[in-house]
Amino acid sequence: MLLLLGSLLGAISFSWPLFIPEINFFIFQPDSARAFAILIALIGIGVVSLDISQGALDSKAVALLGVLAALIAALRLVGAGAVGIEPMWFLLIISGYVFGANFGFALGVVSMGISALMTGGIGPWLPFQMLAAGWIGLFAGAVARLTRRVKMKVEILSLVMVGLFSSLAFGFLMDLQLWPWITSTDTQLSFIAGGAILENFQRFMVFHLATALAWDIPRAITTSVLIALTAKPLLNSLRRAQSRLNFTLRAMQPTVSAR
């Protein structure tokens, strides 16, 4: 329920210009906006904490979560300052695919938070980045349920498609929450307070396609190429680790009632 609540609030916070067009809405005043961003971050962290306290993530899973989060945060430094070169996503996607949606969400949230601490990238955008990264890990884990017992080539192709979609979706989401604040009020790309949803969406799409694809396409290419090159050895290695550590994520197991 907390994950559902956090995702719902996240979806509202990303897309508010499309259905809450009044710019003076109380949530989006300067003080309220900061509090709302902090609330989103706390919900994301709360989901991870509850998973640990309720045993959905056991001690072995938490240790592996920390190791993978540190690796992903370090990978983000590799592409710092480069246009769309973000090698962190391939490891997040493959890890979420192997260990499941619950683990993938936790890994995305934690790794993005750690990378922000390492790079000094802490700001009002961080909760949105954490949620978006968590959704990507969750999506990869959900795809794994649809591709069980398939050949390795099909798995790799599925992961490449997840990488392409996730890279473009991440850019779309981050642009959507920034768009009203970074465009002026008198251009064809500007957000119109009180405007029709369709009109604002058309303006956003023009803004997104005109400005963001220079980042999104390189990100998608980098992620998909890295997945294609590393998926087979990484899948084998992570699955061996899963088997040797012998941990299970309770959220991934079907519930069987004793009668």
Can you walk me through this structure?
The structure is a single chain. The chain has 259 residues and is mostly helical. It is built from nine helices and no strands.
Q: Nutshell version of this structure?
A:
With 259 residues, the protein is mainly alpha-helical. It contains nine helices and no strands. The chain has one domain (2-247): Arp2/3 complex 21 kDa subunit ARPC3 (Orthogonal Bundle), CATH 1.10.1760.20.
The end-to-end span amounts to: 27 Å
What count of helical segments does DSSP give?
A: 9
The CATH architecture can be given as Orthogonal Bundle
Domain tally: 1
Number of strands: 0
Shape: globular
Level-1 CATH class name: Mainly Alpha
Q: Using the coordinates shown, work out and report the CATH topology.
A: Arp2/3 complex 21 kDa subunit ARPC3
Low-confidence stretches: 250-259
- Give a quick account of the main beta sheet: strands, pairing sense, barrel closure: none
Proportion in helices: over 70%
Question: What order do the helices and strands come in, and which of them pair?
Answer:
Blueprint: H1 2-19, H2 30-53, H3 59-78, H4 88-99, H5 101-119, H6 126-146, H7 152-182, H8 197-211, H9 213-245
Keywords, separated by commas or semicolons:
single chain, 259 residues, mainly alpha, Arp2/3 complex 21 kDa subunit ARPC3, 9 helices, 0% strand, globular, disordered C terminus
